[in-house]
Amino acid sequence: MSVRYRKENGTRIWDWKEAKGFPSFSVSCTGDSSYRGWYMIALKLESGSRNAKWGSPRATVMPSFHLPMRSNEVKSSVLVEGIKSLRLITAIKTPYLPDGRFDLDAYDELVNMQIKQGVEGIIVGGTTGEGHLMNWDENIMLIGRTVNCFGAKIKIIGNTGSNSTREAIHASEQGFAVGMHAALHINPYYGKTSMEGLVRHFNDVLSIGPTIIYNVPSRTGQDIPPGVIDTISVNANLAGIKECTGNDRIKKYADKGMVVWSGNDDECHDSRWNYGATGVISVTSNLVPGLMRELMFGGKYPPLNSKLMPLMKWLFHEPNPIGLNTALAQLGVVRPVFRLPYVPLPLEKRIEFVNLVKETGREHFVGDEDVQPLDDDDFVLVGRY
């Protein structure tokens, strides 16, 4: 179809010449010199018959519909094997400013401490990092920033899981687009699905890039049974499983040659050295990354494991990340700011942590300041951010 413009006695006329599937017609308009107040005067069909019927142009029909970023076009920048070999992965804390926004300076320092102490990977926006308290813009921004600042030194695993398959796919596409090395995916929680639904959910997200499947029934309300893992294990993008149900399950997977990380710090020494786990995805390593590295790299070390046990039990006295958030604030490496619904541990538990630091050795903990119990009034609780 071609268009020709002409002017006759002050009237502007556009002629549309016939193209396949479209009739020819003319449109004439009048208006003032400023092109305001144009009015349609006439529409004349000239397709050979004054009785020809006008049909609106049809929308272009695509052979198949995809979002602009198609999952089969988004690939991770590292091979799955690069994730499978990781022994110590920290589920990194997300620190906040007093108004509830991310404290990126403190965050960068936390990540640097992990790198200096030999941690091999970090989970961004996981349970510990409070990804469930972020919107997706915050989540993807933090993943992208972490990749940009630290991606050459440490593996970045973004928590892009969701109980909505659609959201999990979209977030994973975005996460890989900004450069994350792998995704962490939980099974759909609250609105639980069937075993077949779990398989379909995981296969869809696995199609996007290297993925760690995270099984924590105490939070989701539903176990991912070995049968589901066996079914999806043929997918080349399955990097491994973060398993929180105990060492018997870990051994089952390890005996089949699967990569599995312990999700329980208080079990991880035995998981690694007695049950075949590749390593641990740890909360405690936020505080003592060097000691956790020794636990995962140095062979069986029961004395060190026993030494760390009181700290681990203290950390999980209340649901994670309440203990960790409190401890890092007491160590002076993050501001004492909590996004609700999390609140700090009470004073008696904070005093207990001061004593634990002294017994373990302050030099093993992150940061340089003396550990403090802090007053209740020092903490800022933010509900709107």
CATH topology value of the largest domain: TIM Barrel
Number of strands: 14
**Rg estimate, integer Å:** 29 Å
The chain-level structural class is alpha/beta
Instruction: Find the CATH superfamily of the largest domain.
Output: Aldolase class I
Shape: globular
The strands making up the biggest β-sheet line up spatially as: 5-6-7-8-9-10-11-12
**Beta-strand percent range:** 15-25%
Bin the helical content: 25-40%
Largest sheet: 8 strands, parallel, barrel
Low-pLDDT residue intervals, each spanning 5 or more residues: 30-50, 52-77
Along the chain, the helix and strand elements come as EEEEHEHEHEHEHEHHEHEHEHHHEHE
Please indicate the count of domains. 2
* CATH architecture classification name of the largest domain: Alpha-Beta Barrel
What is the terminal-to-terminal distance?
Answer: 54 Å
Mean pLDDT figure: 87
CATH class of the largest domain: Alpha Beta
Number of helices: 13
Function: Catalyzes the condensation of (S)-aspartate-beta-semialdehyde [(S)-ASA] and pyruvate to 4-hydroxy-tetrahydrodipicolinate (HTPA).
Protein name: 4-hydroxy-tetrahydrodipicolinate synthase
Enzyme class: lyase
GO biological process, one term: diaminopimelate biosynthetic process
